[in-house]
């Protein structure tokens, strides 16, 4: 503790896991996370652990399934296509309530995509990813320091709730070098408590089974409902996020991981120009900091989401804000935004606030503006089509009554909100 | 009165779901008897497959894990490497081991994982209702090759012992059957040897058991036993393909 070490993000991730007590790693090479297995291949034997280069991601995750079932702290890492292959195994671990930790150092997709940084695996990470009803705890670091310190957090959460926990990073975080300070005592695996469900030597305790199925009528639903309660508890208790300059902000930029760093720089430029811009950075992507955002939307009229994916992350932000404020999007699906570009977006938002005024804008285009930059050279016909679709979406969004409108919806902000609230009131559904 | 035979301790006292004449139940008992006789029940962890033997996690009286289709050897690897003091076996069907899980099978053998694999070859997919397996015989009918397996369309059967034999990591490979009593006894001997190898830390052992699936073959149990003897044996010869003493090559 206390000492700062200059490391690559991927190495910090591996070292952090080892210090957190990881003694088993199985993985398969894929760029841009290769430093993780490379590091583990010499580091784990040093501490009496096991490293296996598996024959495939499928085998790697199933080795983890076996290892996790023995109660050992284990880990696998991969990048996008590899994580896709691991999804069945992750679903099994979720179904068998096994804790383990894995990292996705995301690259561009879909398909083979490219090896540059991306946030295109957002849906896959926070919506479950594999088959069936389940969730994965997702932590999104934005520095090499966090790459090194989050594995411990992941193990603790995974074990506390008996479920998979992951770090969602990207190629930039994996490859860049920064100082890391491991801010926790190194964990001796022998100091970890017995769990009471792990497989191993019986010693007269009687047989134990790890399985992810239950064919008895109605039983699986009961299990899933119990699991859902657990998920709700996590949503209530384990949310992590960071806010900067949000106190007086009239525009809050929402971003996670690498894009939050880019936004940070853009926010500074904006502050220098006198724009009151702040940053909201979710650290847990699931559980998502919905409440915090919703609270903020009561005071802040404009949000700008910056993401390196095709408008995936913005959906969670919009769900949280639930029409209380304007949410604009700056999306770079397989592109890395420069802070100047983000700053230009901030300027645009301010211009619109000035000309249209927040009320009118919220009324007319609550979910409209999606910007992709650099602007693609599309044919006019295609452009028209895109616009049409967007308008449709916005109308629908305006008409739909939300199942659970947040308590203190600011009625004054926009006409659609007023309508919606009245309708909700009529049905007595405002809770 | 002297009690000559009783239910092995390593089996849970419950009714199994297997069809009459199915080989799975016989092999379960053999595996359990071996565990009893070697005194390893308390430290054995078994991996149940996806397939008709999915409920093996209920039947064996030791710690069990049920894994995804075909991934038994990888799961067993994870368990064994995490808890080397455990005796780990994976129980798999032919669809499981020779099709979807071929990669895991070959590579766990190549790594010479110190695990034991019990491989039930009934030349068909049992649980899903009789589709063609990689081990289905040429000419044998299955629901996905209704006029019989045609090598030109469906390829040839895969002989797992022969396929694995050249691998240096494959320490013990034996093919046996359970279609009649003498062969049941031989199967038990092979299973015991496969466990003993693991106890001795020798490495990868696999026993391929030619077994019956009366239900999906559309035969009576007796006809099924005859089918194994007459049709399967010529394609899948019994014997030791690799052992710690005898390296490489079929006998
Ligand atoms: C990933 C996946 N693919 C397919 C299945 C469906 N499935 C269940 S059992 C089975 C075949 C089992 O056949 P085999 O391994 O030969 O065992 P048997 O039932 O004959 O004992 C299949 C294809 C599955 N459960 N999971
Ligand atoms: S379907 Fe075949 S393999 Fe499955 S239990 Fe019945 S006889 Fe055995």
Describe this structure as you would to a colleague.
The complex is a heterodimer of chains A (431) and B (251). Chain A is α/β, with parallel strands linked by helices and 431 residues long. Chain A is built from 15 helices and 17 strands. In chain A, helix 1 (9-19) packs parallel to helix 2 (35-46), helix 9 packs across helix 12 and helix 12 (339-356) packs across helix 13 (358-364). The radius of gyration of chain A is 23 Å and the shape is globular. Strand 10 (209-210) of chain A pairs parallel with strand 2 of chain B, so a sheet runs across the interface. The site of thiamine diphosphate (TPP) has 17 residues of chain B, from helix 4. Chain B: Residues 56-209 form the Thiamine pyrophosphate enzyme TPP-binding domain. Chain B: This is 2-oxoglutarate oxidoreductase. Chain B: It holds the Pfam family TPP_enzyme_C. Chain B: Keywords: Oxidoreductase.
Task: Give short descriptive properties of this protein.
heterodimer; A: about 425 residues; alpha/beta; 8-stranded mixed β-sheet; 6-stranded mixed β-sheet; disordered C terminus; B: about 250 residues; 7-stranded mixed β-sheet; 10 helices; about 35% helix; about 15% strand; globular; binds thiamine diphosphate; binds iron/sulfur cluster; THDP-binding (chain B); oxidoreductase activity, acting on the aldehyde or oxo group of donors, iron-sulfur protein as acceptor (chain B); oxidoreductase (chain B); thiamine pyrophosphate binding (chain B)
Give the CA-CA distance, first to last residue of chain A: 48 Å
User: End-to-end distance of chain B, in Å?
Assistant: 44 Å
Q: Which percent range fits the helix content of chain B?
A: 25-40%
Number of helices of chain B: 10
Task: Choose one word for the global shape of chain B.
Answer: globular
Label the structural class of chain A: alpha/beta
Low-confidence runs of at least 5 consecutive residues of chain A: 359-373, 375-431
Helix content of chain A: 40-55%
How are the strands ordered across the major sheet of chain B?
A: 2-1-3-4-6-5-7
List the total number of helices of chain A.
Answer: 15
Radius of gyration of chain A: 23 Å
Order of helices and strands of chain B: HEHEHEHHEHHEHEHHE
| SS content category of chain B | alpha/beta
Largest beta-sheet details of chain B: 7 strands, mixed
Strand content of chain B: 15-25%
Largest sheet of chain A: 8 strands, mixed
